[in-house]
Each structure stands twice: as C-alpha cells, then as structure tokens.
Amino acid sequence: MSRIRLVVTWSVLLLLGGAPLSAQAQQLGALCFGSQSLEFLPALVSSARPVRVSGDGAFSYCMAVERPDVMSATLVVPAFTATLGCGLVEAQTVLSFTWNTGETSTVIATTDVHPTSGLVVIEARGTVVQGLFEGSQAVFTWTAEPPDSLGCETPGGISAYVGPSSLTILHTRRE
Predict the structure, then answer these.
(1) Among 76, 80, 74, residue whose Cα is nearest residue 40
(2) 98 and 134 in contact (C-beta within 8 Å)?
(3) For residue 7, which phi and psi values (nearest 5 degrees)?
(4) Residue 159 pLDDT greater than 80, yes or no
C-alpha cells in the first residue's frame, strides 16, 4: 500500500472513528493532502529529554466544501519544547496554517505518536482557535518512516522526520 493511500485511509478512519456520539453532527469543512517535516534539537534518542521541535509543510491539494477558493495551504509548527524520545509521545502543539487565499488558521492540538506496521503515524487533534474555520475541529495526520532504532541509540540520534500528511477540518453543528 502506498504511503499516500495509508495517510488517506488513516485520516478517514480517524474521521469516522473519532466522531462524538452526541446531539451534534460534524460536517466536513476541508480536506487537504501534502507533506511535512519536523526538526528536533537536540536530536531524539531512546530516552525522553527536553527537545526543541519546529517544522513546516505544504498542502498542495485542498478541497473546502463551503470555500471552493481554498485550494492549498502551508503549515508552520512554531518552535516549542517538550520532553520527547523515540517512543510514544504526547504533547500540546500549535499549528499555524496559511491558506492560498491569504487567510490563516491557528490550531491548538494534542499530538500523539502511534508506531504502526513499519510507519510512525502522528496525529494532532484540536480546535481552530483563530482565523478561517474558527471553532471547527481539526485532525492533522502525518506519516513518517520510523526512526532507525540504531539511530535512536547513538549519541547523534534522530534530528528530523519527513513524510506525507493530511488535514481534516470538521464543522460541528447542533441537530
């Protein structure tokens, strides 16, 4: 299965499996596909330690249901520090998106790392707190090859990840 297909499949499963069972319905606001990179300083090693994380990405294909003029976006992960290692991770993250229209969106999310069959899937779930799609839920999924286990054991560690990504924006409406 190709990596892009895995990202799409994972995003759809998260979209369907993560919907709340309440008197609220969620409607697709936007769906985007692209790639992202993250840098770690100092590099990730097997044991958790304070690490400065920063990154960026580009979504070359976006489809926004109510905004057909939204066709692409760039992503910036402003630098933050968290206690991280090469294993499972959970951290609070700010994601800043700039859409091709010049509008922006800021998402505050909880990020989880899920090692799976030969890949690492990183999922950030949160709320758009400012800008386009404000108040909507966002699910950002990024897939990367797992760090070389020997790289995690060396003093040099893992200094960067690169991989395909997807973004799903969900509007919540009362029924």
Answers:
(1) 80
(2) no
(3) -65, -45
(4) yes
First to last CA, the chain: 38
- Cβ-contact 136, 171 below 8 angstroms: yes
Compute the chain's Rg from CA coordinates: 16
Tally Cβ neighbours within 10 Å of residue 45.
Answer: 21
Each residue's pLDDT tens digit, 108-118:
999 887 766 66
Number of domains in the chain: 1
User: Considering the chain, what is the average pLDDT of its residues?
Assistant: 80
Give per-residue pLDDT as tens, 64-103: 989 999 999 999 988 988 888 776 677 888 999 999 999 9
- CATH number (domain holding residue 86): 2.40.350
State the residue range of the domain holding 114: 3-17+26-174
The tokens describing 79, both together, are 């630098």
> Residue 59, Cα to own-chain centre: how many angstroms?
11
